[in-house]
Amino acid sequence: MNDKEKKVLAILPHSIGGRLTLSSIIDGFNATSFKTDIYDLLKDTHEVNNPEKYDFLLGYDFSAYEFCEKHNIRRKKTINYFSDVIEDNHSGKDWQKYLPLLSKKESLSFYWDKHLTEQIKPQIKNIFYLPHFVNTEIYRKQNIEKIFDVIFTGRLDTDYRLNTFINLIKAMPKVKFGWFAIKRHYEDALNRCNICDKSLIEKTYQYFIDNEKDMSKVLNQSKIVINFNEQGISSINYRTIQSMACQTLIISDYREDGIDYFGKNFIYYKNFNDMVDKVSYFLQNNKQRNYIEEELRKIIEKDFSHIAGAKKIQEKVYSIFYA
User: Fold this and answer.
1) Which domains does the chain have, with CATH numbers?
2) Is the pLDDT of residue 44 over 90?
C-alpha cells in the first residue's frame, strides 16, 4: 500500500447512530495515514475553505452527497459507509436522488450487510461488504460498578420492539433494566404503549447518549445488552460490536454473520421465551458470561478494531482510485 498521507473531510450525519459509526472510521483513519477533518451537518453552517485540498469526502449513508449539494461541490471522490438499507428512507429521504451517484467512478462505498451487498453489486460496481468496527481504545472493559442487569440502547420504534421489551420487564420483575434513547423516542414509546405499561417505561428510561465515551461507560455499567436488529439480512449491527468490545454480553436475534464470526459465543434467542431463559441463565452464571465476554473481546481486537477496519477501507481506496 502507498503510505502517502491523504487528507479526508468527514461529513457527520444528523443521526446519532451514523455519527457514532462514522466516528470509529475517523478514529481509524487518524490512527493511520488518512488525516481527517470533520464537518458536522447538524451543527456547522460555514463554507469549507479550499475543499480541493481534500483527497476524499467520507460520509455515512448519503451525507457526503448532501454536503456536496449544499456547497455546490462536483466530481469529488467520496468514501461512503452504509449501515442502513440503501434503497430505503432509512438511508435518507433523498436516497432516490443520490442513488445514481454511487455508480460514478468517483464513488467508493461500503455496506454493512453481506447479502444486501451481493444484491446491489450488479447495480453499483464499487460497493463492498464491510461489517461494523469500533475504536477498541474507547470501547473496552472498565473497572466500574455494574448498575444495570439488562439494558437496551436505541429506538423502541416498532410495536415488536416496544412490546417485547415491556414483556421482558414484566417477565423479570427483580431484574434492573435500563433504556437509553433520545427523548423524543421515549415520548413516542409512552404515547404508543398501553396506559398500564407507561410506568414501566418511565421507570426504565434513563437518558440520551450522544458520544462514544459515554456509551462505553454505560455498556460497562451493564451485565447484558438485549439486541433487536432492525435492518439487513445477515448483518450484525454496531451495538453488537460496541458491546463485545466492552466485554458486556449481548443477547441478540439470530444473525448469520454473528455465527460466522463468533461461533457458539454469539448468543442469540429463538423466541421470547428463549430470550427470557438466556437472560436469566447468564445473569445467574457470571463465570460463564465473563468467559464468553473475554473470548469475544479477543476477536474484536483482532478483526473489528478501528485500525483493522480503516486499513480494509484504505486497501480498497488504493486499489480503486490509485491502481
Assistant:
1) 6-133+305-321 (3.40.50.2000), 148-303 (3.40.50.2000)
2) no
